[in-house]
Amino acid sequence: MKNRNHVSKIGSSHIFKIIENALTDIPMFSLLQENGCLHAEVSDCEINKNTAAKILQTMHYIRILDERMVAAQRQGRISFYLACTGEEAAIIGSAAALLPQDMIMSQYREQGALAYRGFSTQEFMDQLFSNQRELNKGRQMPIHYGSKALNFMTISSPLGTQIPQASGYAYGQKMAGEPAVTICYFGEGAASEGDFHGGLNMAAVLNCPVIFFCRNNGYAISTPSEEQFAGDGIASRGIGYGVKTIRVDGNDALAVYVATLKAREIALQKQSPVLIEAMTYRLAAHSTSDDPSSYRPKEEESLWKHRDPIVRFSNWMKQKGWLDETAIANFTEHTKEQVLAALKEAENVAISGIDEIIEDVYDTPPWHLKQQLSDLKTHIAKYPKHYPRTSGRL
Amino acid sequence: MKNRNHVSKIGSSHIFKIIENALTDIPMFSLLQENGCLHAEVSDCEINKNTAAKILQTMHYIRILDERMVAAQRQGRISFYLACTGEEAAIIGSAAALLPQDMIMSQYREQGALAYRGFSTQEFMDQLFSNQRELNKGRQMPIHYGSKALNFMTISSPLGTQIPQASGYAYGQKMAGEPAVTICYFGEGAASEGDFHGGLNMAAVLNCPVIFFCRNNGYAISTPSEEQFAGDGIASRGIGYGVKTIRVDGNDALAVYVATLKAREIALQKQSPVLIEAMTYRLAAHSTSDDPSSYRPKEEESLWKHRDPIVRFSNWMKQKGWLDETAIANFTEHTKEQVLAALKEAENVAISGIDEIIEDVYDTPPWHLKQQLSDLKTHIAKYPKHYPRTSGRL
Amino acid sequence: MAAMNMLQAVNHALVLAMEENERVMVLGEDVGHFGGVFRATSNLQQTFGKARCFNTPITEQGIIGFATGLAAQGSTPVAEIQFADYIFPAFDQIINETAKFRYRSGGQFSCGSLTIRTPFGGGIAGGHYHSQSPEAFFAHIPGIKVVIPSNPYQAKGLLLASIRDDNPVLFMEPKRLYRASVGEVPEGDYELELGKAKIIKKGTDITLVAWGAQVEIIEKAAVMAEEQGISCEIIDLVCILPWDAEKVCRSVCNTGRLLINHEAPETAGFAAEITTKVQQECFLNLESPICRVCGLDTPFPFAHEKEYMPDHLKTFEAIIRTVNF
Amino acid sequence: MAAMNMLQAVNHALVLAMEENERVMVLGEDVGHFGGVFRATSNLQQTFGKARCFNTPITEQGIIGFATGLAAQGSTPVAEIQFADYIFPAFDQIINETAKFRYRSGGQFSCGSLTIRTPFGGGIAGGHYHSQSPEAFFAHIPGIKVVIPSNPYQAKGLLLASIRDDNPVLFMEPKRLYRASVGEVPEGDYELELGKAKIIKKGTDITLVAWGAQVEIIEKAAVMAEEQGISCEIIDLVCILPWDAEKVCRSVCNTGRLLINHEAPETAGFAAEITTKVQQECFLNLESPICRVCGLDTPFPFAHEKEYMPDHLKTFEAIIRTVNF
Ligand SMILES: Cc1ncc(C[n+]2csc(CCOP(=O)(O)OP(=O)(O)O)c2C)c(N)n1
Ligand SMILES: Cc1ncc(C[n+]2csc(CCOP(=O)(O)OP(=O)(O)O)c2C)c(N)n1
Ligand SMILES: [Mg+2]
Ligand SMILES: [Mg+2]
């Protein structure tokens, strides 16, 4: 046992002073101006052409997917969808800075990260239509993606729960000696949950190689961020936890990429957490169940439409001489067709057979679940017309 | 609907920079040197002689009570006790800065605040012996005091739960137009709970006149504060919430008093929360169930014994010419006798009658509780010897 | 009287309560200007101001802690938890704080004025996290009341009674009925007594018990059973804690048979409590085992929702089995 | 074999598990150097290092969230919640995350290697917050297992089985027995199968069921009953979820009578589930109503603890009532 002194590093002052709001100025890191030009102070940046092209392409891909699926929901073809419009740079720019062995734990608006990892259009569609090919077996609502092969943890709806889980996952990676980190995405609203507090504090104390990536998009459903917190955002909380922190312009894919690259390096080398707050705007409705027109003016949205991260990044690519407009046009064209084809295919695939209803609750079904399944099958067999989606395959 | 821009107050920077640990230096406010002399920079201070004398007297009172009751627990007269030795200045200095209409919500180590409010020795003893005179009817373990008359909320054991409650209580005071605040005490360990996060954030957003008073005493049972958090303490979390914050030397009763006075003024005038972190040391064992010798060296304790807040404050009083040593000696003598007498009296008072077992679960007992009580009484009547504490009074 | 749906009925009750008592305050995620994700709190902020109807940050534990303190102070908070699936972060506040507040203080302090509203239940393609029916968890918490309306008339009268009741009440709203259930509701003030079940239909062969949205399921099954010549007595339990054991037992003593239907998983669901009490009180009257028709012991599945639900056909089959025992 | 108490048995199991598999990690409040407030984790940090046995900050929701993630990654965490009374801040993680982890991902991801240990129950003058018996809450959560030993031999064998079981297990330790229960325990490795009840004594007139520390209470009551010529069959349920309905039902079909004893409040406690299943399976064999002897529907009281407890006398009286029905 050693003597310790928990106040040894704390200075003292004999003049009364109160620490007021926003004592710490945490500016956001940005590289691109709104027009896509590099800021004057910036000379060069650490990204190669292929990566940049893949970021841009994935941003286009997600925009198309989102638009198509919002429409599909309106047509009644799927029950629910949730778009990430306006936030593509934050999501895809950060995902691009990771390696495939890094675990992604997301909130629900990070389909761009999944697409960047290589989730196929058909896989998206199978999830959205909850059919039997879906990797999660259609057990959750649309948009709750998950892919073991791509190290993308299956999404769950309760807000903030993935945050302490990410700390634990990263601790496990460290203990296993894996050269990998975990990234954990969440919104500024979710950051109000107690799980945020527990997760960040534990990661800091236990030195977990995890990147906490907060998308501060100004809204949590209808609640504006000033009714969510009174501080200047989420970044300033990092100080309190002793967590290294970065604030970044979330509509600047380049800055997000660079910031996440550094964060990953620090997380891995110092085996310590890093918090990134990306300042962005939820241009989309919260989800297809929401209509933002009752809580924010159209002009506010237009302001941010002019800050479209895809346009900004394209302009920069163009200036770099890296933009292949024909390739993009072809890709867009092709993607639209591909999405439609995959959608049509997915909607015609059956849902899982009824046996699946009790699988995976436990490693093997205990007696009561077996009994319940057998009763259920007898029942369905008696009323096949009433359970048309499963009765054909008992 | 107005246009809003949640990033308008955030600057930007084009040079990558990471916010490192302990960016913000939050020194602790102190007025008295360890020897009790005012620090050179300090000229005068806002305390009158009566208040100072009452603080000192209460500190002595609590020291005596704690010592006696730890001994009583060792003798097997009560089942449990929990002392605040070493933290008297933090607790009593802050309580002295409040008005009687202010609500106190405490953790469990703040008996000094209750004593300052005027809780009688007999009331302490009745609680510790859980007898039928006890204000909470003996329903909880020893030390779970509560007094409606003194605006001291009944203590509950789960850590941190009182924090969001305090925010809500204070909001109610504000809505009712009461010229009062709520003070909420907790340890640096409890500050790890999710309820801390929810409570502080809500208070900040909803402008609640509440003082969050954290006793950072270096330990949570056996867990040293460096395994509790990686930041520099609890004060730095205030910034993240946009809560006005003060760090104070918790062994300096004068500084604590002055800081709490200011905090109260701000909370009330600005209708906003204030966070105070008092740096102190838990000289006592965690409770009578604990033995700190297995997790910290005696020398560490001695270091802090030399920082005894009672000695320090006495010395200052002496220099002020305010110390009446005879009065203190008499008070000590008298208190010891009084504690012993009250103890003896309390231990001879019966516990509540058995009817009380179902009262106060609801405003009036529903059918099932009435049935359970009547069955219980029939049973006790059949085996009176087995339930000697209640069978005599069915 | 006016025809309204359950959301409107809830909203009316809130308006009346806020008009009557300025200490009534409504808080929760998105309940402010927006009026809540289901619009149950529409226009309250506009009418009563931001201080009395306000958005909170997304922290269910914070919301219930805050509301508990607010109630202890003397206000009458009506806190909304956006979905019952999200009430669990507040479980500690509810079980360890709210429910024990008065008891532990010997009656000195109370948060009895608190009401917690939350939409629950399946049937809306909500999957794991927008479908759960957690009433049984709360039934095991002495110190709170648990109330579940099954139509707009009940919703308004029970909500007013819950807000005015001097005990913390968990008011669970079957969201499948929010717009689906429409009925005549008095425009003025009225209360329905808490703790009372309602006999919807008299019958002689079997008693059927359910609550919330499942009441219409047992009604539908009863119609099928009557066609087979089986006379069903139908009881809407309305309150889960305390529950109206007397009325249920009296009915079962007459019919000799009991079936309970709930959406929550079968194991340790509230049907078990009803069964246990009834077999104790009506042992000699029972002509067949008490029967449960419940959700499966799995998370609430999305694609298999239809198969998962304890629907009218499963109920009908169980009635036949029970009567033919 | 060696005589040891339940704490030592738990400690031995942890040592064996950590020796065998370096991915086994122990975490919780004060479990490190100090060895936990009950010393169940004594010397683990000293033996296996700080990385594998570590203190956490005081955040139960954080602990279970962290441990769930750690398990999903491939480690085998054994998380301690200092008292079962403090598990509720983690209730959301357990019900919405841990329990649904495998199901919701179609079996892609699993946190099945997680074990949560927590001391529970009364009889130690712990009042409201160091006495609760929350097993019934967890019995209503599909996806987890709930295990409760009643002696040192079981504690070691069941804990080893729980740690190795590929499902999240809540391992509830009756703290009243920690030092009080001493028995012979094999020094080596062994497992007891999860989900199996144990018949402690055969009998013919009535079946008595309990778990954890209440097993010795029903044994004591049985001795009194035998003196009156009543032959009791005694069953230690051991596992709450999934539970051994087959063994209990078989016993009741023979004896014709059933009494269940638990410390938790009666309403919606786990006795209700047992009752419901048994009356369904043994309807024609039952000679009297199934009887519960439980805690009262109040918070756990401090001064009235003795009166509150479902002790051997209350159990004995209930046996007599049930047999004389
Ligand atoms: C525990 C919990 N409480 C409430 C909800 C309901 N809910 C779903 S999304 C949402 C808003 C989240 O906002 P934010 O975290 O900022 O993410 P964004 O939607 O802006 O991407 C809410 C309240 C939930 N899913 N989980
Ligand atoms: C929710 C909850 N978890 C765990 C405990 C057990 N416990 C009681 S006191 C304590 C340590 C608290 O430390 P701190 O907040 O620093 O207060 P101090 O004892 O130092 O005054 C713990 C872990 C509890 N009472 N409540
Ligand atoms: Mg947001
Ligand atoms: Mg402490």
Instruction: Name the overall outline of chain A.
Output: globular
Distance between the termini of chain A: 66 Å
Give Rg of chain A in angstroms: 23 Å
Determine the most extensive contact between two protein chains: A-B, 84 and 84 residues
Tell me the helix content of chain A.
40-55%
Name the helix and strand elements of chain A from N-terminus to C-terminus, one letter apiece: EEHHEHHHEHEEEHEHEHHHHH
- Sheet with the most strands, sense and barrel status of chain A: 5 strands, parallel
Biggest sheet strand order of chain C reads 3-2-4-5-7-6-12
Which small molecules are bound? thiamine diphosphate, magnesium ion
By CATH's scheme, which homologous superfamily of the largest domain in chain C applies? Thiamin diphosphate (ThDP)-binding fold, Pyr/PP domains
**What is CATH's topology name of the largest domain in chain A?**
Rossmann fold
Could you say which overall geometry of chain C the principal axes of the C-alpha atoms support?
globular
CATH class of the largest domain in chain A, anyone?
A: Alpha Beta
CATH evolutionary superfamily of the largest domain in chain A? Thiamin diphosphate (ThDP)-binding fold, Pyr/PP domains
Secondary-structure-derived class of chain A: alpha/beta
Strand runs of chain A, count: 9
